[in-house]
Amino acid sequence: MDAEQLRECGHKMVDFISDYYKSIDTFPVLSQVQPGYLHKLLPDSAPTHPDSLEHLFDDIQAKILPGVTHWQSPNYFAYYPSNSSVAGFMGEMLSAGLNIVGFSWITSPAATELEMVVLDWLGKMLKLPEDFLSAGQGGGVIQGTASEAVLVVLLAARDKFLRKAGKNALEKLVVYASDQTHSALQKACQIGGIHPENCRLLRTDSSTNYALSPDVLNDAILSDIANGLIPFFLCATVGTTSSTAVDPLSALGKIAKTYGIWFHVDAAYAGSACICPEFRHHIDGVEEADSFNMNAHKWLLTNFDCSALWIKDRNALIQSLSTHPEFLKNKASETNLVVDYKDWQIPLGRRFRSLKLWMVLRLYGVENLQCYIRNHINLAKHFEELVAKDSRFEVVTPRIFSLVCFCLLPACKDEAFANKLNHDLLNAVNSTGKAFISHTVLSGKYILRFAVGAPLTEERHVNAAWTVLQEKASALLGTTL
Hints:
Keywords: Decarboxylase, Lyase, Pyridoxal phosphate. This protein is an alpha/beta fold. The chain contains 14 helices and 11 strands.
C-alpha cells in the first residue's frame, strides 16, 4: 500500500467511525446476539484472494456491530466507563501508524522519554509526592491494565522480602486487602506463587461504607506474625469496583509502615476524579504508599489501554523483572543513563501508548478534563436524586463519585425475593437495548449499579434510563407510575 492508498483507505475508515459515533445512540447498548452467532455468518476459512474494503465495511455493519456492546454509547451505565475521545483516537492512530516496539530506550528514544514526561505531568495533576516522579528514584510507567500494575508491584514486593527472608520463605508471605478489592489481586497472588490461604481479603460492611477498617487490618497482621507468617503486601483501593468505597489511606499507610509492608494504592477508576481539587482528598495518605495506580483509559478520555503506575523505588521493579540477553545489550542501556521500560513490566514488547495520553492532555488541557469529570459526577448526583424521590427504590451506599448503587424495594422483607426482583429488573432494563446497567452484591444484597461516564452522556440520557427503570419496576411490582 503506497501513501495515496493509505490516505484513501484511512479517510474511509475515519468516515466509517465518524458515522458510527453519529448514530451510536440508535444501537442497542447491550448486544442482543446469542452465543455462536458469528460462526454462522462468516466462512470457516480465510479468503484465498483479496476482498474489497467496501465489502469489509458492509460485513462490519451487518455482522460485527450487532455483536458489539457499545461502551461509548450515551446510554451505557454499566461497570465503569472506558472513555474514548478524538484526541485519544488520533494518538492511537499515530501509534499504530508508527508501529514501534519500544521495549528499550534505544528502540525509540521518544517513546521512553515521552512516557516519562506525560506521567510526570499526570502525577503533578494528581499532586503525587515528588518521590513518584522521574527526577528521583521512582517514576511512572504505562501498563496495559490495573491488573498488570498490581501484579508487577506484588512481584517486586515479593522478591524484596524473599531477598531478606530467603527463597524458602515464600509459603509464609501474606497479602492483605479488603473483600471489596478487585479480583486482579487474587490473580496476581496466583501468578506470584502466594499461597491462596495467605491472601487475606478482610471483611467490610456498611458500618464503614465498605472501606477497609484499620483495626481489622492491624488485628490480622498481629495474628499472622504470632503464627510465624510474614506480612509483606497491602493493597488499598480508592473507588472499589462494587460501590466506589474509599479505603482510609493515611491510617492504613501508617500501619504498613509500622510493619514494613509494601503499600500499594489502586485508584483505577476514581483516580481520574482526583485531578479536581475538591476530590483530591480521597488520595490523602498516598505519600505513605510505595506504588500508586490509576487508569487513564477509564475516565480520562484516553483510549484503552493506558494504565498509569507510579513507584517510589524503580530498582525494586527492575530487580524483579529485568533480563539481559546478549541481543538486547546496547551502549545506552549499559551507561545507566536511560530507562528501559521492558524492565518495568511483564512482556518485553510495548506500544507507543504515551502518544495518546500526551495528545489528550495537550488537546483538552487540565481545566477541560476537570470540567468533564465534574459533569459526570453532577449527572450521577441527578440520578441519585431521582432514585431518592421514588419511594419504591433505595440508594444503598453513599454516592462518592459518579456511581449510584441502588435497589428496588419489594413489598415484603424476604431477602431472596428482593434479590430476584432486582435481578429481574436488571435483565428487563438491559433487554430493551435502551440502557445498560450492571450489578453487584453487598452484604448478601443484590444491588443495581448506575455508573455515569460515557463521553456522550447528557442529562436527557440519564432521564431516559430512569424512565425505563421506572417502567420495568412498575411492571414487576404490578403497579403504575
